[in-house]
Amino acid sequence: MDVSHILDSLNARQREAVSAENAPLLIQAGAGSGKTRVLTHRIAWLNQVVGLSPFGILAVTFTNKAAGEMRARVEELLGMSVASMWVGTFHGLSHRFLRMHWKEAGLPQGFQILDSEDQKRMVQRSIRGLGLDESHWPPRTAMWYINAKKDDGLRADHIRDEGDPTEQQMIEIYKAYETACNLAGAVDFAELLLRTLETLRNNEALLQHYRQRFQHILVDEFQDTNAIQYAWLRLLAGDSGYVFAVGDDDQSIYGWRGARVENILNFSDHFPDTKTIRLEQNYRSTSTILNAANALIENNSNRLGKNLWTDIGEGELITFYSAYNEGDEAKFVVERVMEHVAGGGQRAECAILYRSNAQSRVLEEELFRHAVPYRVYGGMRFFERMEIKDALAYMRLLSLPEDDISFERVVNQPPRGIGDKTISQIRNVAREAGVSLWHACAEILSANALKGRAATAVGNFMKLIIKLRADTKDLALDKLVEQTIKDTGLLEHYQKDRSEKGEARVENLQELIGAAGMPVETPQDTPDISELDAFLANAALEAGEQQGNEFDDCVQLMTMHSAKGLEFPLVFITGMEQGLFPSQRSIEESGIEEERRLCYVGITRAQQKLTLSMAEHRRLYGRDHFNTTSKFISEIPAELMMEIRPRLNVSRPMPSPVRRQSIREDNTTGLSVGQRVMHAKFGEGTVTDYEGQGAHARVYVNFEEAGPKWLVMAYAKLEIMNVA
Predict the structure, then answer these.
(1) Where on the phi/psi map is residue 640: left (φ > 0), alpha (ψ -120 to 50), or beta?
(2) How does residue 452 score in pLDDT terms, banded at 50, 70 and 90?
(3) How crowded is residue 181: how many other Cβ atoms within 10 Å of its Cβ?
(4) Virtual CA dihedral for 24, 101, 182, 233, nearest 10 degrees?
(5) N or C: which end of the chain has fewer CB within 10 A?
(6) What percentage of the chain exceeds 70 in pLDDT?
(7) Helices then strands (H, E): number in the chain?
(8) Contact status, residue 382 vs residue 103, Cβ threshold 8 Å
(9) pLDDT (tens digit, 9 = 90+) per residue, 487-505?
(10) pLDDT at residue 652 above 70?
(11) 382 phi and psi angles, rounded to 5 deg
């Protein structure tokens, strides 16, 4: 039999994996080693050489896009349609199974699937049905709890509360939610897997049918499987099934959402007679980039072990830039992007990666300033994010209570008992009287047109805005933002969401405080505009810029997690600072190995050129950080890196006796690092940095009371305080 069309395009290790004899197989597929090619060619081999029907093969992957690509490649290899083949995600295949076996699963034939918003509403109704206060038991937190338990294969009756009253209440919410779903004939995404597992486990005849049908099970991204997915696979494989697991333990980066790297590390223990094949030839990156990745990941003790190599060539050295601050870092990165474009390159060939979503703000501002189109991959621009728009809406109300759009956005955010019926009543009064919603509220309350809880809730909302306006009237802008997100309950509201999204929202709100601490340039023809209004206008302008789409030639911004599976000629990894990357939490909670795997993923996204950067001083989440270099930098061999600028030791000069002297107006700044200055609003401080020329010259001052701030010299009106 001629199998050239299956094997010719493969290297030796890939051929070994594709043509392996029947046995449990663990394919350690390193980054850029052609794992999708191996999976699809294995299916072709099983069909055309082993003689297995493609409909007797089960292939599981993690995204619908990957499943579609796999199906298309298999069709091309086999020369036939495989539309009915069982290729899909865990959730997609489970859904298919439950549609076929709804009776055995105890579901109505027309059962409905709840998306995340539908699920939230169902949880919300369950909480209300128990008579609980949503402010103390947020629906999203309860939803996160329920999904996490289902991912561990646990029903409410299986959970032990250990005498913990919070756990007890969560279990009751879970039970009420289960009852509501059963009555409605609805299942959520986590339920798809759990119900499939239970149906197979509780029906021996059905289980044996599928074990006999699917004797070959192929799994992509095996390192990302969680507890229930692994249980699902082991149950279906039994003792006679052949699992073909393709994955990379060095790219296991989703532990925070339930993925268990132990599943791949212990694969040979759970599947006896496992044969392991390593795919180590990389077709993506230069040897310099791969050698850096290999050296870094060798510091992890809990791994199977492999060493990536390539015949592409050595390539350029890795660049490391130690910036003075986050603004300097952003400027450096954007300038490198612009140089690449000026040299004939495409913007879309450049990816800027960061550990935390909040880091994107400064990068976005610099790209915006230079009119460089960009796209936030898998997310929104900073000023378009829900929690940021919530906070900005509150601040717009402080500036202008008649702002109806902002009023409607936050009147019940976070939830304070002002329902749709009450809001509709307010709208009607406003329309009939020709006044704003704010004034309509005042009229309704004065006329006692609202009763009970609704009247109290609306009255409390108005009192909140009025009090907040008075309390923040004379505050510096960053302090105003900080007090706003705290007093309105926004910060506490998002802190209750313990998912990764909730954590990111909290970080973004804290970063908004940092953004408010930076100087906002006021147009010269509008000198009377307040600092708050200038900030809000700037936010609106940046949010109003159209986000580039995937087909535009624009720079790609993304988190390290979002970058997995992608590749770019030029990659910039920013924020290489101890406490940021690796994160402080990972350092404190012994999660350093997953952080190192995340860095490994980031490095191996680069095809031709990798640039790493850090900021010695960074204002992030509203706080100042004086940083040391990430330990990951020291784990990369020095001969592979070129450092553009020596790192500086950042220190705060000690205060000293002073006398005042006016700054000369004919000088760009008239200042030097370490100099003491006086500001009419912020008081005394020390100059730690300066940049720019002319009207846009900026100075960075560490004020004793107000903290560090960038100020535009044209508006700062600083006084030099010389040593007496």
Answers:
(1) alpha
(2) confident
(3) 21
(4) 0
(5) N
(6) 91
(7) 29, 22
(8) no
(9) 999 988 888 876 777 788 8
(10) no
(11) -55, -50
Residue whose C-alpha is closest to residue 232's, from 179, 277, 187, 190:
190
Reported as half-sphere exposure (CB side, CA atoms, 13 A), residue 83 has a value of 1
Spatial neighbors of 115 by CB under 8 A, at least 6 apart, are: none
Burial of 56 (0-12, 13-18, 19+ CB in 10 A): middle
CA separation for the pair 613, 561 (Å, rounded): 18
What residues are annotated to the active site? Answer: 35-36, 220-221, 251, 605
Rounded CA separation 588/635 (Å): 20
Q: Which one of 51-55, 385-389, 600-604 scores highest in mean pLDDT?
A: 600-604
SS3 call for 296: helix
> What is the rounded average pLDDT for all residues in the chain?
85
Nearest to 597 by CA among 278, 225, 255, 358: 255
Q: Is the CB of residue 590 less than 8 Å from the CB of residue 245?
A: no
pLDDT band (50, 70, 90) for residue 313: very high
Q: For residue 584, give both structure tokens.
A: 């402080």
φ and ψ of 318, to 5 deg: -75, 135
Give the tens place of pLDDT for each residue, 679-703. 888 888 888 777 666 656 777 788 7
Q: Are 82 and 75 in contact (CB under 8 A)?
A: yes
339-391 confidence digits (pLDDT tens): 999 999 999 999 999 998 889 889 998 998 898 999 888 767 777 788 888 99
SS (H, E, C) 334-374: HHHHHHHHHCCCCHHHEEEEECCHHHHHHHHHHHHHCCCCE
What domains appear along the chain, each with residue ranges and CATH number?
4-101+194-281 (3.40.50.300), 116-181 (1.10.10.160), 293-381+547-643 (3.40.50.300), 384-408+417-533 (1.10.486.10), 658-723 (2.30.30)
> If DSSP codes are grouped into helix, strand and coil, which group holds residue 559?
strand
CB atoms closer than 10 angstroms to residue 239: 7
Contacts of 292 (CB under 8 A, 6+ apart): 318, 603, 610, 636, 637, 640, 641
What DSSP designation does 249 have?
G
- Give the C-alpha separation, 621 to 532, whole Å: 19
Tell me how far apart the terminal alpha carbons of the chain are, to the nearest angstrom.
95
CB 412 within 8 A of CB 424: no
Specify the pairing of strand 623-626 against strand 606-620: antiparallel
- Element at 210 (helix H, strand E): helix 204-213
Q: Return the CA Rg of the chain.
A: 29
Which position has the token pair 């089960």? 58
Grade residue 550 by pLDDT with cuts at 50, 70 and 90.
low
∠ CA 684-359-349, nearest 5°, is 135
* Tokens of residue 341, six digits: 């474009």
446-473 mean pLDDT: 88
Q: Are the C-beta atoms of 292 and 634 separated by less than 8 Å?
A: no
Q: What is the pLDDT of residues 580-596, one digit of tens each?
A: 999 888 887 778 999 99
Strand stretches in 587-666, DSSP E = 606-620, 623-626, 641-643, 658-662
Q: Among the listed ranges 266-270, 416-420, 529-533, which one has the minimum average pLDDT value?
A: 529-533
Q: How far is residue 395's CA from residue 470's CA, in Å, rounded to a whole number?
A: 13
**Angle 160-165-119 from CA coordinates, rounded to 5°:** 75
Tokens of 329: 């870092």
Number of residues that make up the chain? 724
The dihedrals phi and psi of 119, each to the nearest 5 degrees, come to -65, -40
Does position 112 have pLDDT exceeding 50, yes or no? Answer: yes
> Token pair for residue 720?
């030099």
pLDDT at 660: 33
pLDDT class for 659, splitting at 50, 70, 90? Answer: very low
